[in-house]
Amino acid sequence: MTKKLCGTNYPTSICFIVVNEFCERFSYYGMKAVLTLYFLTYLHWDKDLSTAVYHAFSSLCYFTPILGALIADSWLGKFKTIVYLSIVYVIGHVVKSVGAIPTVGNPDVHIALSMVGLILIAFGTGGIKPCVAAFGGDQFDEENVSERQKFFSIFYMSINAGSLLSTVITPILRGDVQCFGGDCYALAFGVPAALMVVALVVFIAGSSLYKRNPPQGNILLEVCNCIGFAIKNRWQRRRYEPQRKHWLDWAEEKYSKRLIQEIKMVLRVLVLYIPLPMFWALFDQQGSRWTLQATRMNMAFGDSFTIKPDQMQMLNALMILLFVPIFDLIIYPLVGLCRINITPLRKMAAGMVFAALAFGAATLVEVNVVKTVVDPAPAGNCLLQVFNLAGGDVSLQIPGSNPFPEPIKYLQDPPKYEMLPLKAPSKMLKIEVTLNGATSECQHIFNQQNSYSLIVFSETTGVQCKLVGDYIKKNEDGNPLLRFLNTLPEAINLTVGDVTFHVPSGDMSPNKTVERREYAEVSCSLESKECSNVNLGLLDFGGSYTVILMEEFGKVGARKMEDVKANNVHIAWQIPQYVLITTGEVMFSITGLEFSYSQAPANMKSVLQAGWLLTVAFGNVIVLIVAEGAGLEQWKEFLLFAGLLLGVFIIFSIMAYFYTYVDPDELDKIYAGDAGKEEDDHDDTKKKTKDIQLNKTGKSTRL
Question: What is the pLDDT of the chain when averaged over all its residues?
Answer without folding.
Answer: 85
